[in-house]
Each structure stands twice: as structure tokens, then as C-alpha cells.
Design brief:
The complex is a heterodimer.
Chain A lengths: L2 H30 L1 E5 L1 H5 L8 E8 L5 E2 L6 E6 L4 E6 L12 E8 L5 E7 L9 H6 L6 H4 L3
Chain B lengths: L1 H29 L2 H5 L1 H24 L6 H6 L6 H6 L5 H22 L5 H25 L24 H30 L4 H32 L10 H26 L3 H24 L12 H29 L10 H31 L4 E4 L1 H22 L9 H21 L9 H25 L5 H7 L2 H26 L1 E7 L4 E4 L2 E12 L3 E12 L2 E6 L2 E5 L5 E4 L1 E4 L3 E10 L9 E9 L2 H18 L2 H20 L1
Antiparallel strand pairs in B: 2-11, 3-4, 4-5, 5-6, 5-7, 7-8, 9-10, 10-11
Helix pairs in contact in B: 1-3, 1-7, 3-6, 6-7, 6-8, 7-8, 7-12, 8-9, 8-11, 8-12, 9-10, 9-19, 10-11, 10-13, 11-12, 13-14, 14-16, 15-16, 16-17, 16-18, 18-19
The chains are: A alpha+beta, B alpha+beta.
Amino acid sequence: MHPVRKQRLILVLVLVALSSAAVGFVTYAMRENMDYFYAPSAFAAGEVPFEKRIRAGGCVVPGSVQRAEDSLDVQFVITDGEAELAVVFDKILPDLFAEGEAAVISGQLMPSGVLRADQVLAKHDENYTPPEVAESMVSHEGCTDGAKI
Amino acid sequence: MIPELGHFALIVGLLLSLALSILPIAGSYSARPLWMEAARPLALGVFAFVFIAYVCLTVAFIQSDFTVNYVAQNSNSILPIYYKITAVWGGHEGSILLWLLIQAGWAAAVALFGRQLPPELLARVLSVLGMVLIGFFLFIILTSNPFDRTLPFPPMEGSDLNPLLQDPGMIFHPPLLYMGYVGFSVAFAFAIAALLGGHLDAVWARWARPWTVVAWAFLTLGIALGSWWAYYELGWGGWWFWDPVENASLMPWLVGTALMHSLAVTEKRGLFKSWTILLAIFAFSLSLLGTFLVRSGVITSVHAFATDPLRGSFILGFLAVVVGISLLLFALRAPAVSARSVFSFRSLETFLLGNNILLILIMAMVLTGTLYPLVADALNLGKISVGPPFFNLFFVPLMVVLCLLLGMGVRANWKDSRWDKLLSAWRLPFLAALVVALVWPLAFDHYHWGAVLGLFIGAWVFCASLADIVSKTRNAKSFVAGLKRQRASYYGMHLAHIGLAVAVLGVVLTTVYSVEEDLRMGAGDSHKVAGYDFDFGGVRLAQGPNYRAFEGVIHVSKNGKPVAELYPQKRNYFSGGNTMTEAAIDTGLFRDIYVALGEPLDRSNPSGDWAVRLQYKAFVVWIWLGALLMAIGGGIAVADKRYRKARAAREASLSGNLAAA
């Protein structure tokens, strides 16, 4: 092989090796730092690990929001039209959080079966439903329908 | 009638950009000067017609013409007039029209200021911009027409501009961001033209450089303004969330930063040519990818636009065409433009290469984290989100290395430097930064080793830049005389680097020393955060032009001395029924006091207890001041006389040639 070609081949091989190492490392780091998304029925079916950071989403069941008397603690129930999941939170809820609307929650599932939220995300404009929530709804039709069960 | 006029103007603009994309480039190959000459008037014509369309939509907003669907969805009759004008880019369709206007504006600017470019190059650059324009014209006309009517049954009233967007920050953020995004299309067009022409010299780089720097400076401002808006408007008090929409703007910025540095090497040393071209292609492709991510509805984000799959597929198709054709062209033609030259391991070239590799690595990491959830979803691996821990794991160490290299690199010479000289140049800034990093945390209530590391990095960049300025002026008669001897681009560079240092210091101090507390507070309650006393005086009613609000009264004092009175609001807009948080902030150079109202904890009794967020944000303003310095640095660099001198020299040589002929 021509020496210049050979040099190039080595360069390419080195680059390939380095980038595969990088990809492997990234994948590993990602495994440690990814949050899986579960619908409330997955919680009911026991598919969700305890005390690991995960995300959940659904529609806030009308009438389920309950506040504590003397602290910021709040409790509500989300649903995907099939199962329900209780959520507790102790910070300020976002402005567009409302009963009958979609919400995405990051947090950990406690052994008691309650999701302890460390972040509650509501949407940016009123016409937007997060795709996961839209898909996980049994009716696939956004919240006001699904929450009426 | 006016909306139809706007629609018609768009179609004329499309036809003109068709001509722009074909005629000049064909002329450049068949040596027909007249066809090439047509590029400039055609580019100006496209801009004129887009401008007409834009004015038509603005008029429809001012007149509250709710027979236009887009106006009905994004405005209403009680919206203040200045927000009616900015509501033009408050939704998808109008923001694409703004995008198109800016795209056509860049093409017109190249046509106006590019007269001294070699005629073939100018013709090809404008033709490529014409092709990009066609893509956006088709996008708006086929999928996102802002002039669609609601006839025959127009609504009596519009449904209002999203209250989040009724804010001064949102007036400036999209235009600045688009100036940057779209501006990279000019660098892209220059790159494609160079590939077509088959040669790339210092003159080419000298031309492409200022356009890239200007686009980069705009993008910097746009991102900073968006982050600042998220900080004060969303009520969370955070400034970066690694949200996919934020990442979408960060990726072109990272590649644009790499491109600027690589262009410097190409201009000064004639190296990195094919790499520069590749970066120019990537920067623009990532702008398009960002548009796709934000507007296709494939990602979950608090910022995502209400979306439509047709639009997503269109942009994805456009992206595929742009990337596919440019990479194919690159593969075929890059060998023709590449150059071989020698530089030592200790040279400025090496440090700039390191800068490029790191920036691309950071971009690749952000890209992976942003796209991985999409790929996983498509492969049925589950619905996943990649959170801030992943990004921080890479971003922080890579930025540390980048800043270390920066401080070392600014003292290196082109081609080769001597180790002993480099080491002695690094010694003083190193010691100075170390002292700053060890001493500064003593000013806060607790000593934090992470802060020491972060402060060292920021101070190192700062001190190395200062040391370089001092050493460059040392041999002059006086300090001032020495300062005068340096070029504008030299100061622009250092100012931008110092801006980065300031931003890094702000990020580190804010992250480590800010305090945030969410509390339940009733009238008369008091709470201490970071040494400040917050007295809650309850809520009262307040009235705005198109909203009603509960307004909290919070007195802040320190050691008994009053510091500020803050009035955070919870607004209810008359039209949409949306609730909005308006945080109240007492800004200072060294700290912000930030309060936001949550909600009344007993809905039936708003004068009872409220959820209140109290925050002390250390040095947070430095983040945006740093970005501002970077952008100003870019502006100063572009003002360098070299770029104009080159033009003058070219003109002189051209006229000389003509005279000789």
C-alpha cells in the first residue's frame, strides 16, 4: 500500500476506535443519568422501581388536589384513564398546573406507592400536551376526556 | 385585501428567489457577467417583497383583523399596541415570517456590502442564499401561511397573545436569536461557494470571518436574553435547564464559536481549510436541526410550540437535502481546497485545534443527550428523558479543560513558541488566579472547594488575557501608546474572552452560593434567607392594561436596614384566563434578591396564606454581563480596519488591472 494511504488508514482506524470509546462512555453515562417515563398504569402493574429517579405523567384528576393546613405540602392524583397515581410535592406548583390538565412529574416512587415529586412540569402554552402524556392516555385525546373516569 | 397582498408578496418573493438561485450561479459557470450581476438586484428584490409581506401582517395585527386566523390566535383588541406589533412573531407562522425576513435581510446585506467580492464568489454566495430562501418560502407558503383567513365566520375577538410573551424580553429575544441562527447561513453560503469554486484563500477567509462573527455575536445576545427571560419571567429563578429547546440554540453557538476560531487560523495561516468549511456546514445544519426540534413536536419541552407533524417532516426533509448535498459536495471537492503546512506542537495552531476539538465534543455531547430520547422512543426502548446530571457530567469538565487551554493559548505564538517563554508567560496569571480562587470564597458564609476550582478557571482566563495585553504593550514608549498599537480585533478577542471569564465566575458563584426557599407565608410573617430578612405584608389587588393581579408586598432588610421593597404579582389575563407569575427582583452587581408568588393556599381566601419563593442569587447578573461582553467583543473585532483595508486594497488592485488593460 502507498505510504500516504497507509498513514491515512491508520488515522481513520484511530479515529474510529476513539469515537467508539467515546460512544461507549456516553452510553454508560447515559444509563446512569436517564429518567424513564412511566404512565400511571405501569405504576399500578408494579413495573416501576422504588426510590430511583423517574418521570411520570398524566392528567390531574379533578378534585384530587389537597393542600396541607400549615405547610406547602400538596397532594394530587394523576391518571392515564386506566389507573391512578398519588403524587406528593412540597414546592410551588407551576402556573399552568390545574385540575383536568396534563402534568409531567419527575421524582421517586416511595415504598408506600406514592410518587414523591421533586419537579412538576406544566406546559408553556395552553394548547400543548406533552407527547408522552398524549400517547399514554387510553383515549389518546388529551386530558379533559381522560380525566373524567 | 391587505392579507392577500401579503400572501401575494410572499409568492413573488418565492419566484424572485427561484431566479436568484439559478441565474447568478449559472452565469458564474458560463461566464456571463450580466447573469451574475443579476444576483444583487434579485436579492434586494426578495428582501423588498418579504418586507411587504411582513408589513401586511403587522398591519393586520394593528387593525385587529380577526378574519386572519393567525391574528385571531395571537392577539386581541385590548392587547397594548407594542405587543400587537411584537405578537407578529408570537406564534409559529409569524415567527417563520420573521425568520424569512431576516434571511432575506442577510442576503440583501451580502448584496449591499459584498460589491467588492470577486464577482463569481458573490454570484455563488447569493445563489446559495437564494436556494436556502426557497426552502423557507416553500415552508411558509405550504405549511405555515400566516395569512390564512377564518372566513366566512370570523371570530368577534382574538384569543390573545400568550401572556408569557407579553414581556419586553420576548420583544428582543426572537429577532436577536434568529439574526444569529440565520446569520450562519451566510457562512454556509460562503463555504459552499468556496467548494464550488475549488479554492479557498486568505481573501475568502477574510470575507467570511466578519459575517460569521456578527452572526455569532447576535446568537450570543439572543441566547443570553432568552436565559435572562427564563430567569425573571418563569418565576423559577434558574437560567439554564438543559431543556431540548435551549440545547437547540446552544449547539449552533458551540459550532459557531469553533468556526470563528478555525476561520482565524484559515485567514492567518491558511490552515484548517476543509475543517472550516465543514464547521460552516455544521453550524447552519444545526440551526435547521434546532428549528426542527422546536417546531415538530417530537420533543417534550416546556417551550415547545404547539405543533404539526407536516411542518416537522418538511423541515426534516429540508435538513436532509441541505446536509446531504453539502456533504456530498464536501466529499467531492474538499481535497481541492485543502492545504498542507507545518506547525509545531507548541503553537497557537495547536491550541486552537484543541479549542475546536473540545467545542465539537461538547456539541456532540449535547446533541447526543438531546436526540437520545427521540432515538430510544423510535426504537421502542421506552420513554426516556436525559436530565441535567448527564449534561453536567460532561459539560463541566470539558469547559474546565477548554478554559485552561484558552488561558494557555492566548500567550502562544503562531507556528512555534519556546517552552521556557510559554512557561514564564503562564506563571504570573496562574499564581494570581490561584490567590483569587483561594481568597474569594472567604467572602461567603461557607468555604466550598468546588467554588475554588470554578473561580480558579474563571480567574485564570481573566488574568491570562490581562497579562497578554500588558506584555504586548511593554515594549512601547508608554502604556497608552502600546495600547493604541494593537488592532481592534485584538481587543475584541480579549474582551470576548474576559466575557467568558465573567460568565464562568457568575455561573460558579450562583450555583454554589445561591439560596432558594419555598415557604408558606401569611401577612405579618417574616423569614431570614442568606442574612436578609423578608417581611411579608400580605397581598393586595393591582390592575394592568389587560390583566388583574394579586400583588404581594415584601420588605427586605439586612441587619435592620431596609434593602428593598418588592412587589411580585400573580396575574390573571382577561382574555385567556391564564395565570402568570411576575417575579420581583432587586438586582445588584453582587447579588439578586428574588421573590415570586406561588398561589393562595386556600383558594377561597386570597388574603390568607400564600406560597412564596424567596431567593438570594449570588452574582447571577455576571452570567449575562459576561455574554454581553462576548457579543461586544465580537462587534469590536468586526470593526477592525483590516476588513475594510482589504476591501480598499482589492479595489485598488482591480482598478489598477482595469487601467492596465
